[in-house]
Specification:
The chain is an alpha/beta fold. It has a domain of 220 residues: FAD/NAD(P)-binding domain. It is 31% helix and 17% strand. It contains 15 helices and 20 strands. Strands 1, 2, 3, 4, 5, 6, 17 and 18 form an eight-stranded mixed beta sheet that branches. A five-stranded parallel beta sheet has the order 7-16-8-9-12, covered by helices on one side. It has a three-stranded antiparallel beta sheet with strand order 13-14-15, with no helix packed on it. Strand 8, helix 5 and strand 9 form a beta-alpha-beta unit. The two termini are 27 Å apart. Bound molecules: 3-acetylpyridine adenine dinucleotide (N01). 3-acetylpyridine adenine dinucleotide (N01) binds next to helix 5.
């Protein structure tokens, strides 16, 4: 039990989730001497990488950037095999980390947390699991991921379908065979764009139901070379420095030029170089494409031309060419042969804007135009992003207020780390932090260190509760909105704005001001004695 707190409480800290965030926090808390434990819904560690086992699942950030950097030895010990690691390798890395830090005995697997209630007289959280277990703790930290609450659309007849049905984010552990089958895929975001080419390699027929065409760039994945791996130890310090000095947490080099000021020939040459190199870095080639619609349109034209050059059938190419949202305002996808897949005879694209789905039948999908008989339906339909994993739990703070109710008009947080009215609750990569607008691993490492330092400080100061002040939270919510208003994000109906979930408030949820700026703000809050938090001490009287 951690020193300074009452041993009768239960745990000092409970962590919900054992993905990259939960594992790292658990390891840090244990090193700092806290009595802590984690609950995890899955049967193993890894979070996103435990659940997303669909064929083709692969990270869109380079392996050497998408890994922990807080431990130099760990970075030296692990050897990545490819430029963009696949799901099995990333999962092995998470398992290796958990084993190396001796975390397995401190995680209860296969156990979903369904409720957490703040008990005001004792200033503790009472946490309830799906199996009816109850555990008490002083501090509760959510590490539930921001893209983990899978979303299956409520299409009429969906329950009647007699074939197999999968969501990419809840993929089964046993192999799924598509051989000889007619497979329908709904959704053409990052998951759909990765899974469709792999399914097409095996299936007899593939029908892709597309509502919104998406921008995608080839990954150009390849094995990492001996030279790259050998040079890595020397690059370690630079990578650590970049985590706090760059917008994304790793370097995304551009030309430093405006696309509007560039000559057509040099513009094309710069973009062709990036296209040939692969990965999302192409959107950072020019300085103005993320904030100016005319500049953005030039970049979007380049992408649409690439689709026309790749897809043989002109009509299909036009349907696949994204329109109606600026490039980058929905997450840029990274693919391996996505557009080429539509040149295969057994792959068909259905434009749901022209023929919406009327219903799912026992043996397929019926649109306003046609019946599509199917053996398998794959939902690559995304997530109730950023808030869903939190609001699907019944979290109740002071005065019996539920988090889901508190956030009905959009998620209010202080720094994405705490919520007023919910004392002693901290959220790793919560709404209002940079989340997936930055490298998630860099954001996680920052949050974990920040929360650990705060807890150590609270313990040594004998603090009973720490709670975000409403005024500080309101100010932060305004800063999040202001940062978003300087971007083009409002021009797309994206999950960043909650637009993919019917009835969800349309509020831009991530902090778009950059991880470097965000870190400076959080660090100044800490240096300033945790400005914006109200602290009550162990010897203060507790409200009745
Ligand atoms: O989900 P999405 P995702 N009828 O929300 C469509 C990360 N990730 O799982 O755009 C028909 O992006 C929806 O259409 P629309 C990454 O951060 C990373 O693909 O709403 N279609 C859209 O096409 C990513 O951004 C990696 O019109 C429906 C799709 O489903 C995030 O996770 C890999 C529909 C959902 O796309 C989420 O990606 C995978 C309906 N009723 C994921 N409802 C990598 O690292 C939804 N759609 C590479």
């Amino acid at each position: 039990m951690g020193e300074g707190w009452d041993a009768r409480i239960g745990y000092d800290v409970l962590v919900i989730g054992a993905g990259f965030a939960g594992l790292h926090l658990l390891a840090e808390l244990r090193k700092s001497g806290f009595a802590c434990h984690a609950f995890e819904t899955g049967g193993g560690v890894g979070g996103t990488w435990y659940w997303n086992r669909y064929p083709g699942a692969r990270c869109d950030i380079e392996s050497l950037d998408y890994c922990y950097l807080h431990d130099r030895d760990l970075h030296r010990e692990w050897t990545w095999s490819e430029r963009f690691a696949g799901q099995p390798e990333i999962l092995r890395y998470a398992e290796y980390f958990a084993g190396r830090a001796g975390l397995f005995p401190f995680i209860t697997f296969g156990t979903r947390v369904v409720a957490a209630t703040f008990d005001e007289p004792s200033s503790t959280w009472l946490v309830r699991t799906e199996h009816g277990g109850e555990v008490r703790c002083r501090f509760l930290v959510t590490a539930v991921g921001c893209l983990s609450a899978a979303q299956i659309p409520d299409i009429p007849g969906i329950q009647r379908f007699r074939g197999e049905r999968f969501h990419t984010g809840q993929w089964p552990h046993e192999p799924v065979s598509f051989a000889g089958k007619r497979v329908g895929v709904l959704g053409t975001g990052s998951s759909g764009i990765q899974v469709i080419p792999r399914i097409a390699e095996e299936a007899a027929e593939v029908v892709v139901f597309q509502r919104t065409a998406n921008f995608s760039v080839p990954a150009r994945n390849r094995p990492l070379t001996e030279a790259e791996l050998a040079g890595e130890p020397e690059k370690y310090d630079e990578r650590v420095a970049l985590a706090s000095t760059t917008r994304f947490g790793h370097v995304v080099a551009g030309t430093g030029q405006s696309i509007l000021d560039s000559e057509p020939v040099e513009r094309r040459a710069a973009l062709e170089r990036r296209w040939a190199d692969g990965g999302t870095g192409i959107v950072a080639t020019f300085t103005d494409t993320g904030r100016d619609l005319a500049a953005n349109a030039l970049l979007a034209d380049f992408f649409r031309d690439k689709i026309r050059q790749t897809v043989a059938d002109a009509g299909t190419a036009e349907l696949l060419a994204p329109r109606g949202h600026p490039i980058g305002t929905k997450r840029l996808c990274v693919d391996d042969g996505y557009f080429e897949t539509f040149n295969r005879d057994h792959v068909r694209l259905v434009d749901l804007r022209a023929e919406p789905i009327e219903e799912i039948t026992e043996d397929g999908v019926r649109t306003t135009r046609e019946n599509y008989p199917l053996d398998v339906l794959v939902f690559a339909t995304g997530y109730d992003a950023f808030t869903g994993a939190l609001t699907r739990m019944d979290i109740t703070g002071r005065d019996g207020v539920r988090l889901a109710d508190r956030w009905v008009d959009g998620p209010g947080t202080y720094l994405g780390l705490a919520v007023s009215g919910f004392p002693n609750l901290f959220t790793i990569t919560g709404p209002g932090s940079t989340m997936n607008l930055s490298n998630m691993l860099r954001a996680i490492e920052h949050h974990v260190a920040w929360i650990r330092d705060l807890l150590v400080r609270l313990r040594s100061a004998g603090v009973r509760t720490a709670e975000a002040e409403q005024a500080a939270q309101d100010d932060w919510v305004a800063q999040v909105a202001d940062a978003a208003s300087r971007t083009l994000y409002h021009h797309a109906d994206s999950y960043y704005l909650g637009a993919n979930i019917e009835g969800k408030a349309r509020v831009f949820m991530p902090y778009a001001g950059g991880l470097d700026r965000y870190r400076r703000i959080c660090d100044s809050v800490a240096l300033d004695g945790y400005r914006g938090f109200r602290l009550s001490h162990v010897d203060e009287p507790v409200a009745p």
